Amino acid sequence: MVLTVCNYNQRPMKTKVTKELLEKFFKGKCTAEEEGKVLQWMKDRSDKNMLHKIEQDWMSINEDDFPVEDTFERSFGELQKKINSQPKVIRLKPWMKVAASLLLVASLSLVLFFYDQTKEDAYITKHIQKGNPSVFTFNDGSKVTLSAGSTISYPVKFASNKPVYLEGQAHFDISSDSEVTIFAGNVKARASQSSFNISAFPEDEEVVVSVLEGQAEVTGDKRLLKLYKPKTIPLTKLRPAITVRDNEYLAFNKDEDTLSKGEDFDQKEVSAWKEGVIYFNNADSVEMIKKLERWYGVDITVSGCLGQQTFNGEYAGKSLDEILMTIKTNESPPLEFIRKEDHILINGICI
Question: What is the C-alpha to C-alpha distance for residues 263 and 250, in angstroms, rounded to an integer?
Fold first, then answer.
């Protein structure tokens, strides 16, 4: 199977990319020459939507459930059909008109079929800007609580090969008859019959998976995001799945590309937010500032010194001004907060 592209503004020049070469490209096994060839071919493509669909199909494949070849072949075939289609003038004989009518009916039925398939493949995206968390359920009955400053995309209709994508923090209560795969940052988590929390804010150093009940299998995401990019960007190296059980957590350090596992974490610290509670347990200034920024949608800057100060407290249904006043009163050395609308300056005292 070969895709051919012609440049009609100049002397015809052809760039040929086979299905095998494109599959090799997504697996990250191309030579420099082959990769350059594919990137040039992608650059020339007019149908970016279909290329994006190929990337989405490739990224969402669950190798354990069905062959990679099936989804890849389908998307590649659709792209080839679009590229090879050229408008032509055809004079139909009477018998051909009858056949064309029948073909039209069949084609409309096929379009309706693929329309229904597209609806089943659709995703819902939710984003929480600030304030209290949002609670909703997947169509399989699983319950999800999404934290402030977080975004989640999930399929309208669940299947084993349709993952969930998370940026930020969410708590999952997976129903007994479901298995859900979640991509969060550079981590892939798969779980069923479990209650667990994932924190994966882009600005944080770590992606943390904390299991409160049940278990989850966690791996580094071994795939490559290459489409429309001049260079290959490896996310993490392939590594065996690590099972995280009750009251255990696994943290992925994005800078060091390492996974570390621990146990006996503070469950209240991990899950208080989903009950609408801001909870500090010996939190340093960085953690305190991040929580307040995400919860109330403000920008906080620091002037002076906060040193090694730690912060403790539990705040339910409190305004930001009330929390700042409590922190100001309780901390030693004292802190000064200057607020102008959504911008807050913390003046620390250097001692």
Answer: 9
Q: Are 128 and 82 part of one and the same domain?
A: no
CA gap 119, 96 in Å, rounded: 34
pLDDT, one tens digit per residue, over 103-146 is 555 555 554 544 444 455 688 999 988 878 999 998 888 899 99
How far apart (Å, rounded) are the C-alpha atoms in residues 303 and 337?
10
Give the CA count within 13 Å in the CB-facing half-sphere of 237.
5
- Separation CA 240–CA 206 (nearest Å): 19
Q: Is residue 319 part of a domain?
A: yes
How do beta strands 187-191 and 150-155 pair? unpaired
First to last CA, the chain: 72
Q: Name the nearest CA neighbour of 57 among 18, 19, 36, 26.
A: 26
- Report how far Cα 99 is from the mean position of its chain's Cα atoms: 47
Domain around 144: 124-268
CB atoms near residue 29 (< 10 Å): 10
Which has more pLDDT, 157 or 293? 293
